[in-house]
Amino acid sequence: MYFLDATFLVGPFVSNDQWHAQAIEVYKKIKNDRLVISKLVIAETVTVLKNKIPTKDIREIYNNIPHLFEIIDDSELYDGAMNEFVKYDAKISFFDAMYVHIIGEKNISGIASFDSDFDRVDGIIRLH
Questions:
Q1: Looking at residue 125, what is its pLDDT?
Q2: In 10 A of CB 7, how many CB atoms?
Q3: What is the pLDDT of residue 90?
Q4: Number of domains within the chain
Q5: Among the listed residues 120, 94, 105, 123, the one whose alpha carbon sits nearest the alpha carbon of residue 5
Q6: Quick one: pLDDT at residue 52?
């Protein structure tokens, strides 16, 4: 089981994204595993996409996400994310702290991400 963050999730959908080719290659390796995202990943992904593709395309991606990935409801996990944020002394973003917390809570194998900040986190395997 792998968690996907927004830096990874944008890549396959945007052909001119800097990580497009790498995201496709990583996806080929993990596509048969359980691929997990959170509601916060969806929000972050939509926000990043608004500067890259037309709104109608974002809506189509948004509508397809539940069919492509398992979605974790992260609404009860914000306190744990804040603890991770403080633990790493704000050296990772709050988004990343949430993802670290989810990975720990759900015993997820690793994260597909192009965000090197995850390399600072003990015990997280980053696919990139």
A1: 95
A2: 25
A3: 85
A4: 1
A5: 94
A6: 95
